[in-house]
Amino acid sequence: MLVIRLQTPNDPDPAWAVLSNKPADWQHGTWDKLLPATRGQDVVLLIPSRDVLLTQTSVNTRNQRQLQQAVPFALEDSIADDLDHQHIVWQTRADSTQVDVAIIRRDRLREWVSALQAQQIRVSNVLPDVFALPWEADSLTLWQQNDTIWVRTGELSGYSSTPAALPLLLDSLTSGQTAPVRLRLYSDQMAFWSADTRFSITPETQAEQLYPSSLQAPLKLNLLNGLQAENNAQFRQQLQRWRVAAGLALASVAVAVGIYGVESYRLQQQLDAVDAQNLQLFSELFPGVSDVDPRGLKSRLTSELARIRGKSGDAANASHLPQLAAVAEAMQAAGGGLKVDEIRAQNSTLTLSLQTQNQQALETLRDTLEKSLGKAVEMQSSRTADSVKATLTLGGQS
Predict the structure, then answer these.
(1) Cα atoms in the 13 Å half-sphere on the side-chain side of 389
(2) The GspL periplasmic domain covers which part of the protein (predicted)?
(3) Residue 312: pLDDT band by 50, 70, 90 thresholds?
């Protein structure tokens, strides 16, 4: 177990001790030196006792739910600050109705916890630093250093004070006592204390050591007890307060997601229909091409047009587009209700199958094509009862 002692949340000079089943020496240094010692350890944080009120009250119940209501009520008159701002933990005694209580402002406790979280340290216990003092039954322990006095009055009780309050402190420690009070003492003013006959003093010689027995019982008053439950309760209160707004927001999101899904489905159906139309048109234009991905149709069309235009450099694949353009112009000029039944392109030859009711229109078409292309156009025709069918054969490009 690693015990860290801080004087302020941003204390640049922490003290720490690695505690096992024997006394441990306090070490002092920087966070860079402390952090490696935190690995794999349960961390106990000791905070200044001035931030914590240790007290006792009498509650005639051991039911935890009843204690949660009764303890704050019993302490209400003795706490000057707003009770709603306080975090309270307690420990019952097995042989009496007395309850040991620790009280700290909730925001101050969170400030201490956040200070160690900022150092990437997760704290398992938070205690007032008066519990770092050794303690024995039927005696007091007093530590005096510079301007601070710590007094441990019991296994789960104690406080810190200032030298200005020392006379009143001494009177309270000896009030009603007929024999000298046993006092385990560490002080930088031993001469002052030795002259006070109200105390039977045992000097503390190991001031820089932390004893396992010092913290064993106080761990029951861990200030983190119930803090998470309070956080959850506050969250539930906030959630209750904003439940209607949150419900409307969630409903709006659900509607928006539904509309988006329906619209996406509709657009996908339209896209699939357009893809099918494009594939059908492509197959009609290029019957010899198969296995075309609709998403790659544009690039495939470009490739096929490039091949038709002869960009592949293969004379056998020369483009028939000029011939087709000439046929279209000639058919427009010939009139006569010409109808194209079939167009076949093979190598440099273009063959058109036509039919009409006007033989003269066929003759006009052939004459116009020969003038346009500058080449002879072969025509074969046959007559049926109601039409004339013809086959025109055009040679290579002009």
Answers:
(1) 7
(2) 237-395
(3) very low
Q: Give a yes or no: residue 215 inside a domain.
A: yes
392 and 354 Cβ atoms separated by less than 8 Å: yes
CATH assignment at residue 33: 3.30.420.380
Q: Is residue 285 part of a domain?
A: no
Sign, Cα dihedral of 236, 238, 239, 243: positive
pLDDT score of 194 more than 50: yes
Amino acid at 78: S
Determine the Cα–Cα distance for residues 345 and 82; give it in Å rounded to an integer. 97
Threshold 0.90, pTM exceeds? no
Tell me: do 172 and 36 sit in the same domain. yes
Q: Are 3 and 210 in contact (CB under 8 A)?
A: yes
- Cα 179 to Cα 167: distance, rounded to the nearest angstrom: 19
- The count of domains in the chain is 2
What percent of the chain shows pLDDT beyond 70?
89
Domain range for 22 = 2-223
User: Final residue of a domain: which of 189, 223, 257?
Assistant: 223
Ordered alpha helix ranges (H), 88-165 = 106-117
